[in-house]
Design brief:
Shape: globular
Radius of gyration: 15 Å
Strand content: 5-15%
Structural class: alpha+beta
Oligomer: single chain
């Protein structure tokens, strides 16, 4: 039986790849030979031309937010625009809540 594949991303190339997950070896981008970032199996990549979505994705990944499935469905809420990211970052600065936790909130008061 084949192992399930999970998504990896190369931010400089704006490319996504499905590969088997391995803790022992680092996945490498076939285009630029840089290390790929493991994002999880519930990831849907934006179009390569959508630079705003890739910038949003970059903020999420650098904050430690992944796209892993939970037992009851998908990964939960993830902001899709830079405006949503800015709102959540401002809220995190005002309240002192960790950025990774604030980015996945459904509503920001």
């Amino acid at each position: 039986m084949a192992h399930a594949k999970t998504s990896y991303v190369c931010l400089p190339c704006r490319a996504s790849y499905k590969q088997p997950y391995s803790r022992e070896r680092q996945s490498i981008c076939p285009r630029c030979a840089e290390p790929l970032i493991h994002v999880g199996s519930a990831f849907a990549a934006p179009r390569r031309r959508d630079t705003s979505a890739w910038r949003t994705l970059s903020v999420l990944l650098n904050a430690g937010v992944g796209f892993h499935k939970s037992c009851c469905g998908g990964p939960g809420y993830r902001p899709r625009t830079l405006r949503e990211v800015r709102e959540r970052m401002t809220y995190a600065q005002r309240t002192g809540e960790p950025v990774s936790q604030t980015l996945v909130r459904w509503d920001v008061p």
